[in-house]
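User: My advisor asked me to double-check a structure prediction for Sulfotransferase before group meeting. I don't want to rely on an old file, so could you generate it fresh from this sequence?
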Amino acid sequence: MRVLYLAGSGRSGSTLVTNVLGQYDGVLAAGELRYLWQRGEVDNRPCGCGQPFRDCPLWREVRREVPVERAGAIAARLRGRLRMREVPELLRRVRAGRRPVDPHPDDAVLTDLYAAVARHAGARVVVDSSKLPPYGALLGALPGIDLRVLHVVRDPRATAFSWRRRRGLDGAADQRLMSRPPVWKAALLWSVWNAVTARIWAGDGGRYLRVRYEDLTADPAGTMARIAAFAGIEPGAGPFTDPATVRLAPTHSVAGNPSRHRTGLVPIRVDDQWRQGLSRWSYAVVTALTVPGLRRFGYPVRRGAQSTDVGSRSAPVGASTGDEEG
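Assistant: Sure, here is a fresh prediction for Sulfotransferase from the sequence you gave:
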């Protein structure tokens, strides 16, 4: 059972990548499965197909095979097991070659969940855009899961600006807003989650591929072809109507950015509103807090300078090599 796990920081393009991958045969764009128990089962938020989670035909079948009556408790235990303060211990375990997260009876439930999702969707690849590195590390230790990690990175000034936008949890009509962390907090989260992602997986080229949002929007079709080859997805006809436009059908993403509901013809182009909209003070704060990551991933420190193409990392994957955010 292959799981393509999108890791890194929020607002970096993961929703766009997930939506596009979900258009290929044999692929299920499952969204942020980390949050299925709370946002799906407890809150009953809309599936990517538009129906409430518990009414969606796919998730209705999956729910019969997992203990949904314990969803709230499972969600709470996952939050406790994957807290940020546990990250140093997780990294020590990884360095020592030990299991990253202590085993728990809930792990069997997670294994059953991914097996049921793949089976009922008829999917060879399940795309999970949960992003949180500790959750990805937990998945990689579960029996029967062949994990591939796609590390999606975006300029931290852009992600900080995006987090400040007012967005409904499930679209413009939703009065509940997504979280809007201050720019300093967005910068710290960007630094931590991207650094932890690279620390856990970057040394394992066969299971790790890093892609920058800026490179994706510069060459959408080419970049998605590389991602598909890395994940073992048969390219087929694909969803591209031209090198920078895709036709999106509804997916069954269980949680994530409200742009997961977008369908129809969608142009993939860079969203660079932050270059004019981010204040000098915010730019300086985010830059100061992310300098090591900026250099590592090829982003300029000075405003107006050009990015450096540091390339992405992966093992050989054979012959193949938006304005929407995740």
